[in-house]
């Protein structure tokens, strides 16, 4: 599942933070974290205010180029062609410089890995739930005759709330409730396979959450990031 510790230290291939360098023998999952960019339907999550500023500056440069070009073609402005071309090239390079970092977030960040190999880039969110379950079930089946540790870190109920069509609209608590119900079903499937393989009475099962709800996550007036009771975050 979700590792969220990244991979590299000094070079892009050293994989010093990879699960296989921290005691695990097998890994299938997401080395980074879920972002809105992975779904492609919500506002960008990475440096949104900064990206908005970059877009504004890009639009200003484009407007300046078009104004100079129109003025030149209509003889309203006496501008050297070299200046217009130079400004256009600078604007293009400026756009490429920041868009190469933020425009391909889905491709660079939203990936699934199997051990050290990339399994999906970008990952298919519609299939990631079933793929993770299949991997977990397969792991249990392969290791049922010896002691094993299986850590399943769900992408649920992290925003964006990736919920398969089967569970959408099932909860009276909106999309967050749907996501919780799907996670509950996934846990049930893992318990079923443990029972089926005769491991129920010899297996310790721990269910835990890594942090509280994300109270900042909204869509309009709808709360997307859960509920923390009297606690702040």
Automatic annotation (TrEMBL):
A GO molecular-function annotation: arylsulfatase activity
| Segments forming domain Sulfatase N-terminal | 1-220
Where does the chain cross the membrane? 54-71, 83-104
Gene3D superfamilies listed in its UniProt record: Alkaline Phosphatase, subunit A
In Pfam terms, one family for this protein is Sulfatase
Task: Name the cofactor(s).
Answer: Ca(2+)
Alphabetical keyword list: Membrane, Transmembrane, Transmembrane helix
Report whether Transmembrane helix shows up as a keyword of the record.
yes
- What is the superkingdom listed in this entry's lineage? Eukaryota
Question: Its family?
Answer: Belongs to the sulfatase family.
Q: What is this protein called?
A: Arylsulfatase D
Species for this entry: Pterocles gutturalis
